[in-house]
Amino acid sequence: MSQPAFFGPAEIEAALPWPRMVEALREGFAAGAEAPVRHHHAVPRPGMDRPADLLIMPAWRPGSSTGIKIVHVAPGHEAKGIPSIQGLYILFDGPTGTPRAVLDGAALTLRRTAGASALAASFLARDDVATHLVVGAGALCPNFVHAHRAVRPSLTKTLIWNRRPEKAAGVAQRLQEQGLDAEAVADLPAAVRRADLISAATNSTAPLIRGADVRPGTHVDLVGAYTRAMRESDDALVGLASVYVDTREGALAEAGDLLQAIDAGAFAPEDIRGDLRELVLGKAQGRRSVDEVTLFKSVGAALEDLVAAEAVVGARLPKD
Question: What's the pTM value of the predicted model, to 2 decimals?
Answer without folding.
Answer: 0.93
